[in-house]
Amino acid sequence: MTVNSPTILALDFDGVVCDGLIEYFEVAWRTYCQIWSPVNDTPPDDLALRFYRLRPVIETGWEMPVLIKALIAGFSDDKILQEWTSITPQILAADNLKAKEVSTKLDNLRDDWIKTDLDGWLSLHRFYPGVIERLKITLASAVQLYIVTTKEGRFVQQLLQQEGLDLTPNAIFGKEVKRPKYETLRELIKKANTQTVSLWFVEDRLKTLQLVQQQSDLDHVKLFLADWGYNTQPEREAGKNDPRIQLISLSHFAHDFSTWL
């Protein structure tokens, strides 16, 4: 590989490869209803749009029904954007809930949905324009492609297979690996077993990229913030102004690696 292309390409999934906002809201609403048993099981008219706008605060899937609870409980959008990390424990504690319980309920609902209505579930996901073609070209090249995500690996595999992409399970690092993404990047470099590793990592969460930055042994990893993903304008500005992070557009991502830099 040249300096203008990687030997390893690691991609986040949600917000980089796939837009699952419609499915997120639907499964989050179903989980919310199961946990909090609202009188009306039809969501308020503006709830989905507010949820979509606030999706950038979500780090892992269990937070999604908690976000709906926060919105129903009357927290403002601004307060959620500013104070989300302190709001989630408040909501869990108020109902004596654990994050693991919420996560299990959400995953079980999703599993049941996939078993009973796979086509319906798949139809609620949209792959960003040009991304599948970019992945297919990468797979056909000498570049090693990996998905590094907080989504369950089996869900990722199911969605990619639908698009004709058969990524082996050992190329997908999902929520089940239970470790920070920077640890997975470290493992990928170690597994490459060569002195000339060039790892590029594309992520839509600025915080995740900043955590990678804090690892001194990963200072050679090229970091890209996807400007089409689940992030806010201030986060994109911060990424743009960070000399270590490259803000990348979808049009550049879909083209040759040389256009990324």
Automatic annotation (TrEMBL):
Supply the InterPro entries for this chain: HAD-like_hydrolase_sf, HAD-like_sf, HAD_2, HAD_sf
GO MF entry, a single one: hydrolase activity
- Please tell me whether the keyword Acetylation is annotated for this protein: no
The UniProt keywords, alphabetically, are: Hydrolase
Q: Where is the signal peptide?
A: none
Which domain of life does this protein belong to? Answer: Bacteria
User: Which Pfam families does its entry note?
Assistant: HAD_2 (PF13419)
Output this protein's name. Answer: HAD family hydrolase
Q: Which organism is it from?
A: Anabaena lutea FACHB-196
